[in-house]
Amino acid sequence: MFKSRTWIIIAVLLGIIAAALVNNYLAALRAANVQEVPMVNQVVAKGSIPAGTKLTAELIETIRVPEEYAHPSAATDPKAVIGQFTVTDL
């Protein structure tokens, strides 16, 4: 019969094999659930901007948002808003 030391070695090896198989299975599940979401650019304020402020490149930034959540009339190009004045607080 096997010695107890042999059983421990067998148990450790089977545990390592089981962990590797579970890891591969979970990685395959994560890869299968990833969907490509169409993204668009939107111009946003970097911080609080008071009304009547002339917009400069330092006050705004461009972020990427999912297309389904993008505001339809939001600016997509920073050049379109630089130099304009704010009407309300941003």
Write the layout of secondary structure elements.
Layout: H1 4-33, E1 39-45, E2 60-66
Short key terms for the protein model shown above:
90 residues; alpha+beta; 2 domains; two-stranded antiparallel sheet; 1 helix; 16% strand; rod-shaped
Describe the 3D structure.
By secondary structure, this protein is α+β, with helices and mostly antiparallel strands. The protein has 2 domains: 1-34; 39-80, no CATH class. The protein is 33% helix and 16% strand. The chain is built from 1 helix and 2 strands. It has one helix at residues 4-33, and strands at 39-45, 60-66. A two-stranded antiparallel ribbon has the order 1-2. It is rod-shaped, with a radius of gyration of 28 Å. The mean pLDDT is 91.
Number of separate helices:
1
**Spatial separation of the terminal alpha carbons:** 79 Å
- Tell me the series of helices and strands, N- to C-terminal: HEE
Please bin the fraction of helical residues: 25-40%
Structure classification: alpha+beta
- What is the arithmetic mean of pLDDT? 91
Tell me the strand order in the biggest sheet. Answer: 1-2
Taken as a percent bin, the fraction of beta residues is 15-25%
The biggest sheet amounts to: 2 strands, antiparallel
Number of strands: 2
Rg, Cα atoms, Å: 28 Å
Instruction: Assign an overall shape.
Output: rod-shaped
Low-confidence parts, pLDDT < 50 over ≥5 residues? none
Count of domains: 2
